[in-house]
Sequence to fold (924 residues):
Amino acid sequence: MSSADGLASELAAIAGRDHVLVDPELTASYETDWTRRFTGRARLVVRPADTAETAAVVRACAAAGAPIVPQGGNTGLVGGSVPRGGEVVLSLVRLRDLEPVDRLAAQVTAGAGVSIVEIQAHAREAGLDYPVDLASRESATVGGTIATNAGGMRVARYGPTRAQVVGIEAVLADGQVVSRLSGLTKDNTGYDLPGLIAGSEGTLAVVTRARLRLVPRVDARATALLGMASTAAAVELAAKLRERLQSVDAMEAFFEEGMALVCAHTGLSRPFAGPQACYFLVECAAREDPAAELAAALDGAAGVVESAFARDPAQRRALWRYREAHTESINAAGVPHKLDVTLPSARLARFESEVRQRLAAAVPEARPVLFGHVGDGNLHVNVLGVGPDDDRADDAVLRLVAELGGSISAEHGVGVAKVPWLHLTRSSADITAMRRIKDALDPQGILNPGVIFPATPIRAGG
Amino acid sequence: MSSADGLASELAAIAGRDHVLVDPELTASYETDWTRRFTGRARLVVRPADTAETAAVVRACAAAGAPIVPQGGNTGLVGGSVPRGGEVVLSLVRLRDLEPVDRLAAQVTAGAGVSIVEIQAHAREAGLDYPVDLASRESATVGGTIATNAGGMRVARYGPTRAQVVGIEAVLADGQVVSRLSGLTKDNTGYDLPGLIAGSEGTLAVVTRARLRLVPRVDARATALLGMASTAAAVELAAKLRERLQSVDAMEAFFEEGMALVCAHTGLSRPFAGPQACYFLVECAAREDPAAELAAALDGAAGVVESAFARDPAQRRALWRYREAHTESINAAGVPHKLDVTLPSARLARFESEVRQRLAAAVPEARPVLFGHVGDGNLHVNVLGVGPDDDRADDAVLRLVAELGGSISAEHGVGVAKVPWLHLTRSSADITAMRRIKDALDPQGILNPGVIFPATPIRAGG
Fold:
């Protein structure tokens, strides 16, 4: 028996034989991520049922010096949740406990494997809501979205996933379990481990359960699509709406290149007679119909050239379709390089105009399609027409981001995809401090090696 | 020249002779905290002017193996910002840069020494507001409130200080500076260092500047004081109001013992004919007058026995006075043991009833006065009639908190005061993980030794 088999047997004794997968037909779906760009062979896939089994799996891997890639719904976009080659994939999908909603605290405790759509539905049944919402909601899990600090449409109103994590249960690299799930929103007894683990992309701990904040359920919605005179005007309007309306739920921007692509791909007709410098989709949500307050706030607003208000749910869906069909329309046109960046609000408009020139100069055949969340400075830069291994476009975009004080990853994380560019927007002092934390909590280096930091050799267990 | 003098000369060369204080008359105000309970002699007090000087001070202290106590406005209550004996007090009060408000991002960059009242006024001039508000606002500083993750009245609506920190500049134990102040609310490039440093009580880094989130300025207020049939009814009502009203800004609870003390001390007349099981003060704030929505939400609400609505600012202040005069009334009656705890919402009422029995059993002469922020499970347990070195009351209260799944410190932090009880509500796995992070970022142990963790000998510099 090889040592790999030895570990497989040990893990089978922990999680059951059915939950240790080695057959390539069974492991394949765990080995390639949402982009199809990142893929690697796993040594095996193990699917523990609960926290105790997860801890035992981590201990066994640590003893064997076997690197681990924790995996949730496998909807990542930066290669952070699939093997690079030879790692154990630790799938958390079986950790599906979902406790009753605690309405008094407006919180719920959920296992790592519960999907976002499930927790949303569960919260809504109790008259509340889970405020993280993103396109991959059917597959993305509680554990995966915590590990990656997932953002989505409603960050400007509710914050990213980290802001929803009231408590966490997680397995550390030595198999110890940290667990605080009693739901204390005020707790100043030492370091914020939940906040540190959130967004650490599986490099510090394996999230097994979480206590999550819920928000009031707000079902009355008002939606408008605006044609703006400029991107700068859209950014200004976003600031004004946020100051004036508590009910702003989403503020999305996209551009003529995306509108043209979406209309060509979907057959939708254009919302306005002519093309617009920037399309701005705003949605308010409240207990009482926010249509009047949205209309009042937009009345006479500077820079609004055209506007379309949704008067019913069907019209609302139609307006959203222009924005939501971007991804499928882009994917139908080719395999894009997906760059997900944040800029300071004051520099968002400048970035949007300069990035096209920089791209044209770096890769003449590049075809950018931008869209984003204008309320929080986050733009998704999709670049078509560039070969999969050609990094020139990525480099041009990310260098401009760095020049303007932005971040090379707003939502997607670093994964393995962004490691070469991390130094552009994190200082060496930052990276050194992060590396020290990593080494302190995972001295062997077995948790998701190669993610965030360049891979280092696995060290012997302590 | 002694080695202490050698360090003083070195620091004088960095910060200027006027800003290295050794005369006991000058150092005294830096040596005793807000409680008057915690006091110790400093080796010296140094007051650098900016981040570069602060970094040089830290490097000099590290080279000399001299432990450092970082200090902001010195309004702490747990002995975390004053020397235990022989440390260098590093006062950040001169770091008073305050940049113009960035309305587009709704953010501002402020030096560590800016007071909360100053940043509030600065934000309000720009039509925005800084949402952290607490009784010590005149003296408490940006740096100190970040280091302690200060809470206050508006946490249920806006979160604690950590939730406002968009970016941070801080000096690490080796004198390196981490600095990201460009104001990116979405940034998934590695670990959340600002969130980790927030609440670390000066044990991981010295905060020198921060980029802070601002919120819309909401000046129309509606306030009601309610007499509730029970504490449980108050907790239920808090949950209902939070679900129904976006404008709830504060939900405070206090009890008959406090009402009696306040009325006796201040000469205020009682708001209601008879004593109430629980007093519940609710305030809404919005751009438009929220009086009607508050009245509607309270109309027929379960458990409301009596109610008084403020109809103008004078009446509003009068209602708040019952709550705000608690601290001065308690202090006039003696030197209280101040315990600041959080309970899960579902157990708050049980705690409130049991804690009095536990106290009576532990210390018959103990006189508890409770008040708190009912929206987030935080109660301030003040205990009068107990000698300063008598820990029996503290122990009885904190053990009950632990039994009920709470935290021994909601807002004040651990400091040195709570170190002996930390293990009650943080597991050994938690404490081990925190200790590893501390050792990784401050291997010498020079930053605020004895705070959060028991003191260990200072190690030689690396």
Notes: Chain A touches chain B through 88 residues (CB under 8 Å). Chain A has a mean pLDDT of 95. The two ends of chain A are 25 Å apart (CA to CA).
